[in-house]
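User: Continuing from earlier, I have the next pair ready.

Assistant: Great, send them over.

User: Here they are, in order.

Assistant: Folding the first of the pair now:
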Amino acid sequence: MIRALLKDNLGWILGYSIGTSLYILMIAAIYPSIAETGLIDAKLDSLPPELLEIFQFDPATMMDSVLNILSGNYYGLIFQIVALLFALTAASRLLARPIDSGELMLYLSAPISRSTYVFSVAGIGIAASALVALLNALVLWGSDMVWNLDLNYEAVVALCVSSFFLLTALFAVALFFSTLFNESRKSYLLGAALFGIMVVLMIVSGLSVDYEWLKSFSLFTLFDANAIIQGSSDWVLHCVILALIAVVFFILSSFTFKRRNLTL
């Protein structure tokens, strides 16, 4: 079963892993040239301070290293969108769509319980999250070898480990929604709505100190790339919290899926 699921889902897993890694490679490749020309500094100076605050861009330190650029450009912005799409895609492809298509009936007709299927799917999602984080880390390491970027490897490890736990937690939440409905469209829309609210809360919290409390309702507050790079984030604790969230939602997914009246 696991082999069949991996075969069917390897394409999108490699797509996210390679796609994000290629973006990191592109930033690493152009960093030496843009650091010398100062084009990014000039562009940042022309942007409104409020916009820089929302997207966590710090003009004073952004060009100090490629990690600072990635923390604002990739991990602080693009990665959030990628993480949401990754979680929704994984939950849809691994559980929601098999229910829609009736493919799940083939797996459950074998001596496989619903709980076994859910935890097998969870294992594949965790492995996919690990592949994304690991390949991102390897690309950063390889880029440092080629372009001598003088990376802070403690920060690299913290970023990649934190990204893995964030991906896993978001996937667990999306998987839970997939166990609630027989139609993949409904679970996808509900998950997308919740994740979209999380992103909006993070953006609004950056508009004013008065709204900063809103980010407490978003999982993304547990992944602060700028704070990780600056060494001011308790990222280990945040990873533990994300891991606990993932475990809770995996268990909830198994519980609800076992009690579902499936229309296969």
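And the other member of the pair:
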Amino acid sequence: MPSSSNHHILSGLTNNLHDSDTEETQEWLESFEDLIETQGTARAQYIMRSLLQRAGAKSVGVPMVTTTDYVNTIPVDQEPEFPGDEEIERRYRAFLRWNAAVMVHRAQRPEIGVGGHISSYAGVATLYEVGLNHFFRGPDHPGGGDQVYWQGHSAPGNYARAYLEGRLTEEQLDGFRQEKTKAPNGLPSYPHPRNLPDFWQFPTVSMGLGPMNAIYQAQFNRYLHNRGIKDTSDQRVWAFLGDGEMDEPESRGLLQLAANDKLDNLTFVVNCNLQRLDGPVRGNGKIVQELEAFFRGAGWNVVKVLWGREWDALLEKDQDGELVRIMNETVDGDFQTYKAESGGFVRDHFFGKSPKTKELVADMTDDEIWELKRGAHDYQKVYAAYKAAVEHKGQPTVVLAQGIKGYGLGTHFEARNATHQMKKLTLEDLKTFRDHLRIPVSDEELESDLYGAPYYHPGKDSPEIKYMLERRRELGGFVPERRHEQPEIPLPSEAAYKSAKKGSGKQMAATTMAFVRILKDLLREKEFGKRIVPIVPDEARTFGMDSFFPTAKIYNPNGQNYLSVDRELMLAYKESPQGQILHAGINEAGSAAAFTAAGTAYATHGEPMVPVYIFYSMFGFQRTGDSFWAAADQMARGFIIGATAGRTTLTGEGLQHADGHSPLLAATNPAVIHYDPAYGYEIAHIVERGLEHMYGTGDEDHNVMYYLTVYNEPIQQPAEPEDVDVEGILKGIYLLKPAENDGPRAQLLASGVAVPWALEAQRLLAEDWGVSADVWSVTSWIELRRDGLAAERESFLNPGDGTRTPFVAQQLAGATGPIVAVSDFSSDLPDKIRQFVPNEFASLGADDFGFSDTRAGARRFFKIDSHSMVVRALEMLAKRGEIDWRAPGEAIEKYALLDVNAGTTGNAGGDA
């Protein structure tokens, strides 16, 4: 009997209800059975739905059924005829499974030992092949190609197929997981577009991101279509996922978007082998039933593919439902064990649970019982499920396919807990696997070199290869395949940046507002503006972007079917199927996924789009750093805007909103170019350069993302100086204001919102202490560091060619005196450049958790305010003997530096 904790998996709809007339009940049941017998399951389904609908109208209490019996969703009589040659497909599927396993096995030579996963593809091969032979459309299909998110650990299967298709060589297969040592023939372990850019489209092995990104890719396909940019009506998104992966919060957390947007262009295929990496997914429960209820409750169409065709006759004979009852009550841990044992074990422990079910298999041999396949390994059942998915309208579909991890690899592999970590085959395993697949490889070939088992290719003129290639020709070309030639697009005119370079006049404006004004002007650019994709996670008004609502509008495929409460306002909330703004709600993970879909449209759709994702700074790289890493792998392009940046700028919000470290997190991503601009004119040059860098035609790496930290503290934005150092802005540092007095020399380096503090410190040093200090605006500590490290590496590898001076050292050449560097981030950020400048160097930073307080109080507490800069400069000059040694102490007393209430740096105001 099942444990009480599994009551939810029983087919007990009538439990706890009294049958007042058993004879009448039996008559109803017999009538229903006759309906199925004479008119089929489709008619029976309609009658049942009609009865349920009427019952609801009459207030008859009928429970919501989110979980159905543990059987296939599609009845046998509704299965379509399989259109392919199943025998020939089975033959080359055997070749694929052999080559995939041998590739991983060969990579386990003792002198290499780079690992790999043998069992994952063995279990998913049928799910892949039915799609590749009959459903997945290639990039040359008239309707455009499908986007397929492959299971990361099954990558050997994709390589094995590409080998049979003639796209990869044996030498490349032997370069698996040896990307540098076997270059140019190395292959990455998993789907990594950046490392194999002509092949992979989507990185999926950071589990949970694949499902999320697939949902937003499907949404973006519809977005492009509804906005009239590209006809994507004939394209589908497929995502292959593991049942263990579905425990990741990202895997399930965004299902509602797909349902709300009615994304019937999206199909999830969950490979339910009932195992995760180290054991069963739900040993005491049933993951398929759990997922069915979850997806159905989220508004998805659910198709279960649990049993192969060999079970059909048994289920047909199961007149009293005993077999279905046992299927319902058997927990996953037992189902896993059955496939690790034998046919006799299954007879005794599964069918033997009831005399009636044991009788069902009385005339079957143990071998025949063992050959009762799970649904994920049956071409006919999988084809029926996929066909139902693509024909279903109005909902996304999930196919829950039950299979076996390590299917066909032998008793050492099939369904074992350790299967995921097993990477090599014994000689006995190889022979058993060869025999099972009927691969024409001799014992002598296997025995001569355990790790030299040969790949098998029947020849390009064999019927199997001809059939395989013909199927792909009819479907529009190879999958996966990535085409990344970027079409040329007109970039914005100089007029788009003029207003930002004029400054704010007498008005005060934060850099967030300065950026939004630039964005507004870019949206007005006739040819370019339509390519911008503003992405906001429910903070548009905070960032001053509500002005976009009436014109750009918020994307909603369902339109706006309600009366907006602010409809009388000029900046009323406005939704539209043609809306340009992707407004994900309180959802940074979804916003990052939307950014990735938009930022890779140049490759996925041949349509360069420019995502501009603006968010609360703290909730970007801290919360969704893995998503940005995947975006970098996928070679996304676009702008990431960390608004309300800094540890002391968003003072009212407190610890979890006070960002003092995001640039440091972003610095670990090689594809992210970070800037911390102080003024609108700096932003204008950075945005202009970013668009040219990512979307221009220059001979440079376009696969980067520009990350700008901008602030909500209003300041007077200066106009761009006539002789502004544009190169310095773009490379990371320029002289903003040289000292106007003579005296002991110091250098003040600041970024972002800290630049006005440095200017104030410059004035105080001159007026109160006679010190001559230059102020430098550091627009990018990170880019300066990268340039410095590159210079060091060049010198390291080319010792005879002289030494290249890092850009920051070039800029500071002749700038004498100690350096005091400050930002509104932790001191680790300015410290990034310390090793590249000869001057004595001090970093001031907000090195602790944030808290709620005034800006002036917070800056005084962290000792990053103007007066702290003054005191630090005085201390360094006193140590050098250039000023009186008593000056620092006098300054501390004069400015009450130890009193947090005495701080004056900054001002109030700005949305939080």
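Worth noting for the second one:
The radius of gyration is 33 Å. Confidence is low (pLDDT under 50) at residues 1-10.
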